[in-house]
User: What shape does this take?
Amino acid sequence: MDSIQQQIVRQKLTMIKQLVTKDKNGDKFVLANREKNRNFMLEYGLLTSDIKNIILNLEVNDYYKGPEQDDAGFEGEIWIFTPTFQNMKLYIKIRLANNTLVICISIHEYGIY
Assistant: This one.
């Protein structure tokens, strides 16, 4: 049987994935325009659709920490995942805003920032 924490992570992952799947031109999913995100995408030749696919493939065992408050003061919960992508550990920081919008704040190789 799953722990309570695993059940909560599973519920949030389901919500995140539903929003990413339903996204139409940024109404449910936004990838933050940050240099480290752009550099990661350029280095691996990834598009926003590829980032969505990485998020859609997240599993409970990829959970690292959360929920936390956004230290920048934005509304919503911060969730952090560390999945494996192309034999590399990633760091993915997601803000789930009002359970209606997924913002991928960071996606890059784990430990380089």
Summary: The first helix runs from residue 4 to 22. Residues 44 and 86 are 10 Å apart (CA to CA). The chain is about 35% helix and 30% strand.
